[in-house]
Design a protein that fits this description.
5 helices, 8 strands, eight-stranded mixed sheet, about 200 residues, alpha+beta, Aminopeptidase
Amino acid sequence: MVARPPLRFTIDTMELADIPAVHAIERQSFPVPWPAYAFRQELEANRLARYLLVRAGDRVVAYAGLWLMVGEAHVTTFAVLPDWRRQGVGRRLMLALLDLGRELGAETATLEVRLSNLAARRLYEQFGFRPVGIRPRYYSDNNEDALIMTTDALRSRPMQARLAHVARLVAQDDEEAAIAGIGPEEGDTPERRGSGVGSDEP
């Protein structure tokens, strides 16, 4: 058997040309997907919004977005292509998203997640997100409650240490991929706010 070189993951800023690939992930990840024009509106008209994506080689395999509001990086959406989940992609993407939040001056990060989405919650806990409240009947497809999660100050020593630890795990993922394939991770299950841009669905 001839060994194939491992795929290279890269983090990019989402651009208009990426919308078809992002929307394909969207349709596979959410019961009521955002329309494609919602992403266009976010990129062209929402000055608070920033979106990142992960490429495996040339293929878009994940994306996430945040809104910067009053010193808070609010994670609005987060999804990984089903075939690429549990391969370290979600961890890599969240690390980049929080780094972006810090660069933009955010003091903390927050998000909402379905109470039933334990895989996503485990992923977020790796980054120091902790439960701080409940939004009752937040998700309009099934009226499920949302768990509100937030971090400590992004520039605090504990958070800096936590993110450095996750960065080492990402580097370790790369080393393992180069030797024997990409190792699994907890999480990557898609999540976003209950009221999204261009849609009132989760």
